[in-house]
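As promised in the previous annual report, we have extended the structural survey to additional targets. Below is the entry for Flagellar motor switch protein FliN.
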Amino acid sequence: MTDPKKPDQNIDDDWAAAMSEQEQSEQEQAEQQGTGDDDPWAAAMAEQAEAEAQAETPSEPDAEPNAQSASDSVFRPLAQSAGGGASRDLEMIMDIPVKLAVELGRTRITIKQLLELAQGSVIELDGLAGEPMDILINGYLIAQGEVVVVDDKYGIRITEIITPSERVQKLNR
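The corresponding structure token record, generated without further manual editing, is:
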């Protein structure tokens, strides 16, 4: 193969010359590293290896090999005791707040209908009058109940606790 600008010169010879120059420069670099010239990467790697070796060997001869961590003395172990393990586990979650919501019903509307809503508009829901309301905990249906008024405030009286199989059926509606 030849260069169109220099038809007399062979490109393969140029490649061979370039490759030999590269090999020579690599050999020179290897020799310089072997003679002790400063290589910052090699020095950094050697320093890191030395620091790791010092960290593995204890600097104090009287250090205890079976020393306990501070967490053992600060935190109680979570091992269950024979008698009160279940009640203790339940106590751990008693103060976790949850969101309770009561749902009157649902509906689907288009964006056009949404934009047409104004003060005084009525939205029809799929729930029937007198039908029990859904009680949701963190968005999950757990019970149904009826609305009550106590001292001018709304409340809900639980009339039915939903079983897990009923929960699955209610989610599909």
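The chain has six helices and six strands. The first helix runs from residue 11 to 34. These points will be discussed at the next consortium meeting with the crystallography subgroup.
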